[in-house]
UniProtKB/TrEMBL annotation:
UniProt KW Transcription keyword: yes
Entries under Pfam families matching the protein: HTH_1 (PF00126), LysR_substrate (PF03466)
Name by which UniProt lists this protein: LysR family transcriptional regulator
PROSITE patterns in the cross-refs: HTH_LYSR
Every HTH lysR-type domain range: 2-59
UniProt family annotation: Belongs to the LysR transcriptional regulatory family.
Keyword terms, alphabetized: DNA-binding, Transcription, Transcription regulation
InterPro entries: LysR_HTH_N, LysR_subst-bd, WH-like_DNA-bd_sf, WH_DNA-bd_sf
Coiled coil: none
């Protein structure tokens, strides 16, 4: 019988590439990871790893086993969901992830509703960039998350994650109100840009939008909070891209130009967990809070 914990390590190795990275992600020593993978290889009865110098790579059999592992883990999630549905009431810790602009807009009403309807739930919120969501869900650091991508920078589907569509938003070009007669992306060729931290999705999107307009952005400032981004634009420090959720109340000295770019938000959770009553309650609360926000966003 194959050990599920060892199968998780093999899946991690396929995703992360090195034993050292797996050890860091799981808080193990590299030696412990190697020993567990060696034990899995004995259980499998076929070679799973090939050593090339100081690195390892998966054999074709190991790659096939990783695909089966995703199905096994999804089945375990579904089994847990079935058992949870048989219990009375919802309780326990729920770890919710959200990107920064969703925390003050979509999330508060959902948290209030969940706390009111299911007081035995212990709700914990973590703010994080969308690029970190799949790993956090797979590793159990999150149970449910608001996860987004952009049409100009689509995120590849993850075999360990399922999701439901929540919201599509316009993206705006934010420019100072004065001195910008050409309010197009092409017209910012010589402008300074305010973009997210390298490695974040917002940074990638800004770079791609500028590249599509035929130039490379001249980055002056890095900022990940859209309130700070808009304040910098208002101060004449550059131009930026801002999604609709973050653009409800721009400073008076900022003009927002709608672009043919959209941000797409989904509610994500581990594959197989859709039927878990806690996940279903979170999805319903987030859908309701988003609908209410869109109908009547808070005034400035």
């Amino acid at each position: 019988m194959l050990d599920v914990r060892r199968l998780r390590l093999l899946r991690d190795l396929a995703r992360l590439g090195t034993i050292a990275a797996v050890a860091q992600a799981r808080a193990y020593t590299p030696s412990a990871v190697s020993q567990q993978l060696a034990a899995l290889q004995r259980e499998a009865g076929v070679p799973l790893l090939e050593h090339t110098g100081r690195s390892v790579r998966l054999t074709p059999a190991a790659t096939a086993l990783v695909h089966h592992t995703e199905a096994v883990l999804a089945a375990l999630e579904a089994a847990s969901a079935t058992l949870a549905a048989a219990r009375t009431g919802l309780s326990g810790t729920v770890r919710i992830g959200a990107f920064p602009s969703a925390v003050p807009t979509l999330l508060p009403a959902a948290l209030v509703a969940l706390g009111r309807d299911h007081p035995a739930l212990d709700l914990m919120v973590t703010e994080l960039d969308p690029v970190d969501v799949p790993d956090a869900l797979r590793d159990g650091r999150l149970d449910v998350a608001l996860w987004h991508d952009y049409d100009v920078a689509p995120v590849e589907s993850d075999p360990g994650v399922d999701s439901v569509r929540l919201l599509d938003e316009k993206v705006f070009l934010a420019v100072p109100a004065e001195g910008w007669p050409d309010r197009t992306v092409a017209g910012t060729r010589e402008a300074a840009w305010i973009v997210g931290t390298p490695g974040t999705l917002c940074h990638t999107v800004a770079m791609r939008v500028c590249q599509a307009a035929g130039f490379t952005a001249r980055v002056r400032h890095h900022a990940d909070d859209f309130t700070a981004v808009l304040a910098l634009v208002a101060a004449g420090q550059g131009v930026a891209l801002v999604p609709e959720l973050a653009a409800a109340h721009p400073p008076a000295d900022v003009r927002l130009v709608p672009l043919d770019v959209h941000r797409r938000t989904r509610i994500a959770y581990r594959r197989g967990a859709a039927g878990h009553p806690v996940i279903a309650a979170c999805v319903a609360a987030l859908e309701s809070s988003t609908s209410a926000y869109l109908v009547s966003p808070p005034s400035a």
